């Protein structure tokens, strides 16, 4: 079997990558693969051979250049009856996997997953047939679907597999174009999707007994997920109670598919005013269902007999975000449930994606509540500090970057003038521990947290300035961390009292110059010139010149001509850096009369002015960063092995 799989894989490569020399042999190899597929048994040990063979034939069927091989109706009928239907039909091994290994079943069957099952490959074959022979394929499939549904209706208890195949056939032929993120964008005109839904899918979802035909229920929920874009808002609102009811199913696949369906539906978009895409279901639409929805979702999360479920946790995250304006009544209960779940999984983290969505859910709550009332940060601190301290004490390395991001988020929301508070003050000194900064995944989050400390209470941590500069020195020595070093340095310069920072500036500039001399990479030049502009904006151009000239006479002007101005002539900064550069350059031009005392200085002055004008006139410098609020549904949220950024914890 393994040899045959490898041979067909090679044929696939020839068919897709190097077609010309392969064309003379194509009919012969197509027949061989066809004959091989006819001998493949439904046993799971032959799945790899079946899927690769189906994929090979699909790649040929879907191409116009091979149309003549498959265009006879008899050939299409034979493909459907001898390949498609047998491989779409539920086998005993599928039933066992559905019951005993739901995670594996979901991996092979769920929309958007990387794993390939026979059914998934077979549906791709149907879509390939429709690309070249849509009318004929649709007509043949319609005959089979009608016959199968009649068999099912005559004996539902024993013929439920026929209905499952019928729904999968429709899923195969009805879709012209789709994406995992946005669902179906084009539907086969020959298939009345909504009519099929109302006659055969909706009735299945209305069945209250969850133990009746669970595999068909899962398939029907998958149908709803696939065609989420085609449903009207009214239809979705009508479906919501049925999907919530299926969250109560004892079958893991069924309640997982229900959670995934709700999550996908909540991201479905329609054209709004001015052609801007807006979510189909708003917080107001979801509000009547919140109680039942969260009860059902946390019923799954709290069940100790079930493994962590990333689809359920993602549904919680998405529901919280959509309902963010109506969370005040449920925030305490939801936060308790999330912190309980955190305490459980911290003992033995197993599912990185589920854990990521758990922390995203907490971030959504913080953002939703504290945006309205900054004073609520106190309540979040009381709730979250105990589990966060537990994570830090237990050294759960997978979770520490998340904890630091959430600590930064809460601190950034603290009311102005409220200071750091006792909890944050006591936590600060341990954050400077070198071991924490050794772990690369901690660095982005810790840097942001220290910057938040500086923004909210620099005067309270001024005695720790040398410790922070030690962290800066460690970060700047690594090319991977130099951007975070400058984030921290900018925070120190902006927020720390000037008289405390200035005594250290000679040493800081010395470190910066040594690194610049060691390797003038475009990235580092961009970072250091951004800092120059910020420093001048904060301390003035004379202090900047004095600091550099103290290291080496004329160094200030030399950096202008050899580093700063060439960088701005080549690349225009954008957004916040553009503003910083204009402020720094303007102060330099207006506060450094010595520049105009000789021809060389006048030339530098003119070049600096030209750079400032170029930035002001550049369209890129005026780009507004998209608000996180408007982008929440389109962004790809999930775990990353290096550093998992919490989307909902990004700066307000």
Describe the structure.
The structure is a single chain. With 652 residues, the protein is mostly helical. The chain is 69% helix and 2% strand. The strands form two sheets. Strands 1-2 form a two-stranded antiparallel ribbon. Residues 625-630 have low confidence and may be disordered.
Give me a quick take on this structure.
This protein is an all-alpha fold and 652 residues long. It contains 33 helices and 4 strands.
Q: Can you tell me the overall shape?
A: globular
> What is the percentage of strand-forming residues?
under 5%
Number of helices: 33
Largest sheet: 2 strands, antiparallel
Average pLDDT for all residues: 89
Give a quick set of tags describing it.
single chain, 652 residues, mainly alpha, two-stranded antiparallel sheet, 33 helices, 4 strands, 69% helix, globular
List the helices and strands and how they pair.
Blueprint: H1 2-17, H2 19-22, H3 26-39, H4 47-61, H5 67-70, H6 73-88, H7 92-100, H8 102-109, H9 118-154, H10 160-173, E1 175-179, E2 183-187, H11 193-206, H12 214-226, H13 233-246, H14 252-265, E3 269-271, E4 277-279, H15 283-286, H16 290-301, H17 310-322, H18 331-346, H19 352-372, H20 377-394, H21 400-413, H22 421-431, H23 434-438, H24 443-457, H25 465-476, H26 482-495, H27 498-518, H28 522-539, H29 541-551, H30 555-570, H31 575-591, H32 599-617, H33 628-631
Antiparallel strand pairs: 1-2, 3-4
